[in-house]
Amino acid sequence: MDIIGKGAEAVISKKKKDEAEMVVKERIKKNYRIGEIDDALRKQRTRKEAKVLETLNQVIPSPRLLKVNEKENLIEMEFIEGPKVRDVLEKEDYIAISKTIGMQVAKMHKKNLIHGDLTTSNFILKDGKIFFIDFGLSFHSTKVEDKAVDLHLLKQALESKHYTVFEECFEAILNGYSIESDESEDVLKRFEQVEKRGRNKEKN
């Protein structure tokens, strides 16, 4: 297996099986945690991420869940070949891409799934589709606040990485979100409150 990424919680590797490429995500041990607690946490998070993937596979383009090994804290999933949106956004039709992202976030929120790490590093462009990846921080929630915070974090990520086009992109995201979301009015009102809180924190 070839390691293609390392994070605070997991090691991501790529391997071939029967000529098909797949991604293996292994949650790593944390020596600063008590062994039994660490093992229970990793199992719980592995199980939760697998359930999120199973749901999302039916809703938006995302890696297909292939196998879960809770004993080894491993998830095997489809490998999505393509550039990250982070690297191509300004070179492509960024308004169309952003609108699609907004629509897909709304579909995810309809299922009460919060991504938790919406950045252009976690979107892959393949065959004209936007695949969402990396659900390590995802969770289920019916709260409007959590959905608003998801959008707030996406806006921050866009402003940081794509500052030349972020205003147009985020407007398109909100447009797409409003098209697909039944509760967009409530979420966007709460989003404004979240934004206001963020600005007040910066002032203080």
Features:
204 residues, alpha+beta, Phosphorylase Kinase, domain 1, Transferase(Phosphotransferase), domain 1, 2 domains, 5-stranded antiparallel sheet, two-stranded antiparallel sheet
Q: Could you give a quick summary of the protein structure above?
A:
Helix content is 47%, strand content 21%. It is α+β, with helices and mostly antiparallel strands.
Question: Please, could you describe this protein's structure?
Answer:
- With 204 residues, this protein is an alpha+beta fold.
- It has two domains: 2-78, Phosphorylase Kinase, domain 1; 85-203, Transferase(Phosphotransferase) domain 1 (Transferase(Phosphotransferase), domain 1).
- The protein contains six helices and nine strands, in the order βββαββααββββααα.
- It has a five-stranded antiparallel β-sheet with strand order 1-2-3-5-4, with helices on one face. A two-stranded antiparallel sheet has the order 6-9. A two-stranded antiparallel ribbon has the order 7-8.
- Helix 3 runs parallel beside helix 5 (166-180) and helix 4 packs across helix 6 (184-203).
- The chain is globular, with a radius of gyration of 18 Å.
- The termini are far apart.
- The relative contact order is 0.12.
